[in-house]
Design a protein that fits this description.
Blueprint: E1 2-9, E2 18-25, E3 32-36, H1 47-52, H2 66-80, E4 87-90, H3 93-108, E5 124-125, H4 127-130, H5 133-146, H6 153-172
Helix pairs in contact: 2-3, 5-6
Length: about 170
C-alpha cells in the first residue's frame, strides 16, 4: 500500500520545525491522517508560511503537541501495516525527513519500539512522475473541483495521490 505524505514546516532552513503532517493511502478504501503541531514556535516561521500555511490551520484545541503527533502517527502507520506492506510516497525528501523524525520521537520515548509494522525503509519519490505540464494542470483542476487547499498538508497529500495515479494511468496507455 502506498502512503502519500505531505508536510508543512516553518521554512527551508536546516533547523525548520514541523507545522503539520498529512497522509492518505492509495486503494479503493482511503485512509487518512492529519495533525497540526500545537507547540510550534511561530517566530521560526518564514513570511511565506505566515501568509500561506498558518491561515489554513484548524482550531487551536484540535492541535497536538509534537510528542502526541509522533505517537498518533506511529500508531496510525502501525495499524495500517498489520496486514500490508507500506511504502511512503512523497514529492519532497523533507516530507520523509519529518515523518522519520516523528517515528524516532515515538520510538525513543520508550512507549513504541522500532518502526511501525509493515513500513518499508525505502520511499517512493513521485516528483519526477507528477511534474509534466499535463499532470500539473490536471492536479490543479482536481484541487479546484475538490476544493482542496494548496499548502494544507492533507490536501496536498491527496493532490499528490491524484497526480501519481494519473501518471500511472497515462504510462500504462503508452
Amino acid at each position: 500500500m502506498l502512503v502519500f505524505i505531505d508536510t508543512e514546516f516553518t521554512g527551508f532552513e536546516e533547523n525548520a520545525d514541523l507545522v503539520s503532517i498529512g497522509m492518505v493511502t492509495d486503494g479503493t478504501i482511503e485512509h487518512s491522517f492529519y495533525e497540526e503541531i500545537s507547540d510550534l514556535d511561530i517566530g521560526k516561521c518564514s513570511d511565506f508560511v505566515l501568509k500561506h500555511v498558518l491561515p489554513l490551520r484548524g482550531l487551536p484545541e484540535q492541535r497536538k503537541t509534537l510528542m502526541q503527533t509522533a505517537f498518533l502517527c506511529w500508531d496510525w502507520l502501525d495499524n495500517l501495516g498489520k496486514n500490508e506492506r507500506l511504502q511512503i510516497a512523497a514529492d519532497f525528501h523533507g516530507d520523509v525527513h519529518f515523518l522519520n523524525m516523528l517515528l524516532s520521537i515515538a520510538a525513543q520515548s520508550g512507549a513504541r519500539s522500532g518502526h511501525p509494522r509493515g513500513l518499508e525503509n525505502n520511499w517512493l519519490n513521485i516528483f519526477p512522475a507528477i511534474q509534466s505540464d499535463a499532470i500539473m494542470s490536471a492536479m490543479e483542476q482536481y484541487c479546484h473541483q475538490k476544493k482542496l487547499r494548496i499548502h494544507h498538508a492533507l490536501d496536498d497529500a491527496k493532490r499528490n495521490k491524484f497526480g501519481w495515479e494519473l501518471a500511472q494511468t497515462l504510462s500504462t496507455k503508452k
